[in-house]
Amino acid sequence: MIMNTRQPRTAHFRLDNIPDGPLWVKELSSVKCPNNSSMQIIVPDGDILFVLHVVREWYMKVEYVDTEYSLWLTWFLTPVIVTFLLPAVILVLIYVSSIIFHIYRLYRRRLVGGVHGDWRDAARMAVCALWDAHGWLWHGYEIRGLENIPEGPFLIIYYHGALPIDMYYFIARMQLLRRRHIHTVADRLLFKIPGWATLLEGLCVIPGTVQTCASVLKAGNPLAISPGGVYEAQFGDHYYKLNWKARIGFAKVAQEAKVPIVPMFTQNVREAFRTVGWLRGVWLRVYGATRLPLAPVYGGFPVKLVTHLGAPLHHRPDLTPDQLQRQVATAIEELIEQHQRVPGSILRALTERVYEIPKRKSLAKTDALPNGKCKNGDVKREPSDSCQSDSSEKPKVS
């Protein structure tokens, strides 16, 4: 009996040197893959073509899996990337508005000569038409409660979303429909952004001290202020809680200028744009140290936006700034309670573009205390109520 004492041979193959053609498949004794570029295969002595077939099949399967994974990853990440890129559309519109003001300023004699006496007013109308068209097309923007806008100067106090696009749309609609330009107060950071100076000047945006704001109102111009400001924009959420802290500067402005206050709230403003919830503590510490709003903003969803204007709160000299601040906070929270479903839902806000879902009135919250304070005015309470106080101690609020 003759025994075969020959040892198996070791073959090395490059994946890019596999020939084409039909191959015979035989059983492998073992396969070793030290790296991705080459394969070391130990086979019995004999025809080695079956090894080429196995290597080819393995390579095709790996390539197929890699292609499917990359396609799945692209499909999964595309919506996430888009949600962070859509806010850039607002930035582009802002720079387009700034370019419009630069064009009117540089060519004011050719553009407005014989047509309009004030180039700033002409540029403002063009910019407002741009923003009003965007609000109407992308958000179906509406204003309800225009009858509450008083004649003469007034102060608008509004809830600040992640991006104050509702104020952009509101200013544009008021300029186009009522020919009334709303002056606004903005953070000083905006005045340091390159290319924005002419736009902010043309739209009458001011940094905002008590004296400058009061002078704007005394001159007969309406003014809009968000007491929450950048802090409320960065760290508010879809529960729509006011983040005013102890800010009473707007109340001092209203008392000094002796003008009525119009509370304002825009429904679904937090569903259009949101700030990320993760690492909120980090962004809060960074903001406290640098005053820079670095929390990422995502969104740009075409949700329904409706601005609600409450009844004006007329000037009352007997109120202190603290009392007036609580009164205005109560008025805005009542607008939120009446028109906003909490917590907010992006899907529901998108549905409201085609069908407005009426909010159910909650009977359990009829006696709730807005902003954690006692209600102003005459409220009947049981003697055991912790908020019970003598009506002579606090002035009544209409």
From TrEMBL:
Which Gene Ontology cellular component terms are annotated? membrane
* Residues that span the membrane, as ranges: 72-101
Do you know which InterPro entries this protein is assigned to?
Answer: Plipid/glycerol_acylTrfase
Instruction: Tell me the segments the record calls region Disordered.
Output: 361-398
Which residues lie in coiled coils? none
Enumerate the Pfam families for this protein. Answer: Acyltransferase (PF01553)
- CDD domains, per this entry? LPLAT_MGAT-like
Q: Domain of life here?
A: Eukaryota
Biological source species: Manduca sexta (Tobacco hawkmoth)
Keywords for this protein? Membrane, Transmembrane, Transmembrane helix
In this chain the Phospholipid/glycerol acyltransferase domain maps to 142-264
Regions of compositional bias (Basic and acidic residues) in chain numbering: 375-384
Which named protein is this? Phospholipid/glycerol acyltransferase domain-containing protein
GO MF annotation terms: acyltransferase activity
